[in-house]
Amino acid sequence: MLEVKDLVVEIGGRTILNKVNLKVEQGSTTVLFGPNGAGKSALLMTLMGFSGYNIVSGQIIFKGEDITNLSVDERAKRGLGIMTQRPPNMTGVKLETLVSAISTDNSLDTEAVAKKLDMERFMERDVNVGFSGGEIKRSELLQLSAQNPCMYLLDEPESGVDLVSIEEIGKTIDELLKSRSNCFVDHNRRGNSALIITHTGQVLDYVEPDMGYILCNGAVVCKGHPREMLKEIKSQGYGECIKCKRGQL
Ligand SMILES: Nc1ncnc2c1ncn2[C@@H]1O[C@H](COP(=O)(O)OP(=O)(O)OP(=O)(O)O)[C@@H](O)[C@H]1O
């Protein structure tokens, strides 16, 4: 469903991603691990098409189409949705207004999701203005549920979230991934896919992962079973990255 081919990205003249290759199959959940500064967020931002991420070479293929040069809104229309680490404040734009503006015609009950995420009282507030870290995550999830994409790019969905809310957020992500979108490639398979960045792996208590990648210094150095990878990272850190590169790629 999503394929990244030999992607090289620069920010301000510095190479941040160096020949990244990665695939996310339709209906699968892929996890992206890697140390701080490895380029994980940059990869998600590039996939979504944000400015400042200069694609030097390589391709991004989504549902068989080359989207490398498409704008953010064109990618969103095709079914890509993102939860970023630091979404901007939108002074003067109420959350309710934003949610109804991005709502697509779908069967998902956004009001019910707002209630479930305990976001009803935030609907009249300006988007992200004064929101706590956990509130921002819930607001982002609410927006994603309204957009109803079929490819979820989730950047550390559990960071800054208290232990009780992690369960709510994890379960909501799982439900969203299992919900109906209208942008599938193969209608005979489960549709929604995800590429999730996590350091702690807490979100994997609620979402079943299929494939994992480790990014180090802007390059994919390892791929494999995400739960096994997480265990190895927890016991050995990222020091084994290079060894893994020799062994598994
Ligand atoms: N706008 C920018 N200007 C300059 N450098 C940037 C910019 N955005 C990102 N970088 C650099 O790109 C590198 C990759 O950053 P990125 O945020 O993708 O890392 P990450 O793997 O997501 O890290 P973390 O786990 O800490 O979130 C870092 O060295 C960062 O400083």
Automatic annotation (TrEMBL):
Gene3D superfamilies: P-loop containing nucleotide triphosphate hydrolases. Residues 2-242 form the ABC transporter domain. The keyword Nucleotide-binding applies. It holds the Pfam family ABC_tran. Keywords: ATP-binding, Nucleotide-binding. One of its GO terms (molecular function) is ATP hydrolysis activity. This is ABC transporter ATP-binding protein. It comes from Methanococcoides methylutens.
